[in-house]
Amino acid sequence: MKYLVVCAFLLAAVAPAHAYIDAGSGSYVLQMAMAGVLALAFTVKLAWQRIKSAFSSMVGGRQSSGTNLGG
């Protein structure tokens, strides 16, 4: 509780910085956020494929490779 009061006091006593974020930093932050979202989407897709594959092998279904060569 003591640390919370000290942190609250320090945050309340901060003076304005009058700083800015330039376009290069802003675009870098945006790029990292987009990369994080895409990495999360890829991870979810990969996990879903593994779960689906595990359930289909338990049921005894044949896994399709995505290509149908006349068979």
Keywords:
single chain; 71 residues; mainly alpha; 2 helices; 0% strand; elongated
Helix count from the secondary structure assignment: 2
Low-confidence stretches: none
Principal-axes geometry comes out as elongated
Number of beta-strand segments: 0
Oligomer: single chain
Secondary-structure element pattern, one letter each: HH
Largest sheet features: none
Overall average residue pLDDT? 83
What is the helix fraction of residues, given as a range? 55-70%
Percent of residues in β-strands = under 5%
| Estimated structural class | mainly alpha
Gyration radius, rounded: 25 Å
Distance between the termini: 70 Å
What does this structure look like?
- The chain is mainly α and 71 residues long.
- It is built from 2 helices and no strands.
- The longest helix has 37 residues, at 23-59.
Please describe the topology of this protein.
Elements: H1 2-12, H2 23-59
Give a quick precis of the structure.
This protein has 71 residues and is mostly helical. Helix content is 68%, strand content 0%.
